[in-house]
Amino acid sequence: MSIETDIKQPTFRNPYHRLIVNLMFTSNWVANAQMHLLKPYDLTLQQYNVLRILRGQYPNPVKVSDITERMLDKMSNASRLVDKLVLKKLVQRTECPSDRRAVDVVITSKGLDLLKKLDVVQADYEVELNNKLTDEEALQLSQLLDRLRR
Amino acid sequence: MSIETDIKQPTFRNPYHRLIVNLMFTSNWVANAQMHLLKPYDLTLQQYNVLRILRGQYPNPVKVSDITERMLDKMSNASRLVDKLVLKKLVQRTECPSDRRAVDVVITSKGLDLLKKLDVVQADYEVELNNKLTDEEALQLSQLLDRLRR
DNA sequence: GCAAATATAATGTTATTACATTTGATGTAA
DNA sequence: TTACATCAAATGTAATAACATTATATTTGC
Question: Where does the record place the HTH marR-type domain (chains A, B) (predicted)?
Fold first, then answer.
């Protein structure tokens, strides 16, 4: 369905106005779906993102400040997100030896196991997208989004 | 900059994985910019969206349930958003005569004036996007997003 | 070396979100 | 009509987000 039909707005001022609204609407739509996939595993989207950042560097530690920098939503509080993950024993927090201000965070094996399970769920979701856009179209869409942020 | 550089993740599993991450990152990027544009006017993005929905129907009233349906973020509480807007005298709330369960909401002239000011701000922002994507590309991007949600 | 500036994470606070529940009105079927 | 289900909005709530502030540690300029 076109964005006009989805939000019942007949016209937009120009293609950029339409794009902004469409982008936010579609992103909410995806985020919602992702949230519901994560719900049975008692993870929020942000917690999931942090875990994936940590897995990307495993077995190296990542500082809280690096997590903040790399999060999709910069404004979330990485410190408190890490708190939650520590409580669930999905990550481990240790003082950084070379800089006592910083805190090193590493994903635990429990965290890696959880991510492995979620990889399957995520792959299923990606297959659904595959039915809607070809690989080339998905790539093209990504490239246009990159250019929008330039 | 490509999404890989932006979030310092070297590779994605496939074009769909890359797309999902890119979509959320870009949407947050736009939402952040929009939020900062709205801040001097003491409006949240959601409140702004509600006002624009109401202007779209002006001078006809819109029910709270219709607002919920048409909001970009379905989960926000339209009832409480309307509350905030009533406090600022940007909208007016009256009992729907044909259905006493429902509530009619109409934008006030103060609300319309505010939106008019914001139209200028918004247009400036759209000009920035214009430097990054052509009209055709913006349209194409919108269409790909539409297809993603099909 | 030392004071000031900056960096890093944690914490405080208020508003908002994501639901669940409640209150009241309307529709529907016996 | 009278139950009973459904619908619309409001309200309760716990968690989270969006900042601002604080507490330490490090860096920089003198």
Answer: 13-150
CB distance under 7 Å to strand D: residues: A 44, 46, 73, 75-77, 81, 84, 99-101; B 35, 39, 63-65, 68, 77, 79-80, 82-83, 93, 96, 99, 101-103
Average pLDDT, integer, range A80-97: 95
Q: What is the pTM (predicted TM-score) of this model?
A: 0.88
Residue ranges per domain, chain B? 1-41, 43-149
Strand partners of residue A63:
A104
pLDDT at B23 over 90: yes
Contacts of A115 (CB under 8 A, 6+ apart): A51, A52, A55, A107
Average pLDDT for A52-70:
93
* Protein CA at B84 to nucleotide C1' at D5, angstroms: 33
Q: What is the DSSP letter of B76?
A: S
> Span A15-39, mean pLDDT?
92
